[in-house]
Design goal:
The protein is of the alpha/beta class and 496 residues long. Helix content is 34%, strand content 11%. The chain is globular and about 65 Å long.
Length: 496
């Protein structure tokens, strides 16, 4: 946690919170980047400390009007571009199932708190998987809402002005029922009256009922992104889900969407089209940077000739055309180059939408949420290319609402001894884990990612104090995520 709001929460509950609302009395934890009056938003940067806001942001206003009570803010990485959550201000966030592993990022503080049992509902943000991967690593539920469906004003970020791949604030929860009820309640508060960026689209109850009564769904399964194959544990979670759906009579089949590799290339170049200058500008001299983000920026700054020689070596000497394609032209973009990428992005989105609607004709698509289970601390230095399973759906953004759902919390495994470099960079499409699975004393969760069908081309709805700075407390296992029947899960995540 980054801020403890208990005294303020008691005051708000007594004088500001609408205790007649649909969320009356429900405590809600918030990612550190969300604006709360009387508190700063550090985003892990020391230069942002003690810059206190004088009023609540739109999200907090909605929560209070709905009856909810914000009670803590939680940790994140400085750049907001990592599946770890560490910074010099608040320290390292640890996985509650195994303290040697990351709880995910960039909403890692939320996922750790939810999995630990310290909160039931949380709110984070997602630009490349930042609510989905933490839910996968730590063991909870989340959904990345469609762009424009959830409030965004009144937040802080490390990359202000970056709209090529828009960040979306979205809910996380300990159970699927909590996630559904909370999301429905927020949309029914008409968030577009609080935030001009939200589409004026009401919660469609009739659609929710229609899907709940539907007995047979067409479910497509994307088993790999052809960049980093999923680890045995993640592939097994997906296969168990497929088997459960088939047993309930659903039509389940494998699909191959338009190149996820192309999507990863486009999304990564668009997201860092400024060369990382914006998020690097917030650092003070000597301040620690996430190892993955630091590697991306370091490579950006190399002379183009050196990068081209390295590209040739990777492609023709190492024989790794996939990694070579990702690092090709890895440089800050001119306005002309940016526009060209934006045009290719729109072409890809149209191609993906047409493929889903006219070729695959699915109700739901399942994918692994990440190539690996939770990674050891510091592993993002070598695991940056494993984000394609989530990043894809930030690129296509408007029409698809991916969510993270439980398979079997207790059978998941975390690994000791493997190095993500072996998973993500050494040769094309190699399995993410080449070692035998080893159980740890504290076994971590595994999840699958599900996306619902777009409706009529319209944006889809969601769902389907001060802390001790640099504190590094030990994690503990206190999970209790409710599993439920798989068939009910798919109908529940397909929102109104």
């Amino acid at each position: 946690m980054t801020e403890i709001l208990f005294p303020e929460a008691e005051e708000w509950a007594a004088h500001e919170v609408n205790l007649q609302g649909s969320l009356a009395g429900i405590p809600v934890s918030l990612k550190d980047s969300i604006q709360v009056k009387g508190f700063d938003i550090s985003v892990g940067y020391s230069r942002n400390l003690e810059n206190r806001y004088t009023e609540d942001g739109a999200m907090v206003k909605i929560l209070k009007d709905a009856g909810a009570v914000p009670f803590v803010k939680t940790n994140l990485p400085t750049t907001l571009l990592s599946f770890e959550s560490t910074n010099d201000v608040w320290g390292q966030c640890k996985n509650p199932h195994n303290e040697n592993f990351s709880p995910g990022g960039s909403t890692g503080g939320e996922s750790a708190l939810l999995a630990f049992g310290g909160s039931r509902i949380g709110i984070g943000s997602d630009v490349a998987g930042s609510v989905r991967v933490p839910a996968h690593f730590s063991g909870c539920y989340s959904i990345r809402c469609s762009t424009g469906r959830w409030p965004k004003v009144g937040m802080n970020t490390s990359m202000s002005g970056q709209e090529a791949i828009p960040s979306v604030f979205s809910p996380m929860a300990r159970t699927l029922n909590d996630l559904t009820y909370f999301t429905r309640s927020i949309i029914q508060m008409k968030p577009w009256t609080y935030d001009y960026t939200v589409h004026p689209l009401a919660w469609r109850t009739e659609m929710e009922e229609e899907y709940r009564e539907e007995k047979k769904l067409r479910v497509g399964v994307m088993r790999t992104d052809h960049v980093v194959d999923p680890s045995p544990a993640c592939a097994r979670a997906l296969e168990q889900t497929v088997a459960a759906l088939k047993a309930e009579g659903h039509d389940v089949f494998d699909v191959e969407p338009p190149s996820p590799y192309e999507a990863l290339q486009l999304a990564s170049h668009l997201l860092l089209s400024d060369g990382g200058k914006t998020f690097m500008a917030h650092f003070r001299t000597g301040e620690w940077n996430d190892l993955g983000a630091a590697q991306l920026v370091k490579y950006m700054r190399l002379p183009r000739f050196i990068k081209y020689v390295h590209y040739l070596w990777v492609k023709y000497v190492k024989g790794d055309s996939i990694w070579a394609g990702l690092i090709r032209n890895w440089s800050p973009k001119s306005a002309h180059e940016y526009w060209q990428l934006a045009g290719k992005r729109e072409e890809y989105k149209a191609k993906f939408y047409t493929w889903w609607s006219d070729e695959a004709k699915m109700d739901v698509m399942l994918t692994p949420p990440n190539a690996t289970p939770a990674v050891p601390h510091g592993a993002m230095h070598d695991a940056v290319s494993s984000c394609g399973y989530t990043f894809l759906f930030n690129l296509v953004r408007v029409y698809f609402s991916p969510g993270i759902l439980a398979t079997n919390l207790h059978e998941a495994r975390l690994l000791r001894g493997h190095h993500p470099r072996d998973a993500c960079r050494s040769r094309p499409r190699r399995p993410a884990i080449d070692l035998q699975l080893q159980e740890t004393q504290r076994r971590g969760p595994r999840r699958i990612q599900a996306l619902r069908r777009p409706e009529d081309g319209r944006p889809t709805g969601g769902c389907a104090g001060r802390g001790t700075k640099a504190g590094r407390g030990k994690g503990a296992c206190n999970h209790g995520a409710r599993r439920g029947r798989t068939g009910q899960t798919w109908r529940a995540i397909r929102p109104a």
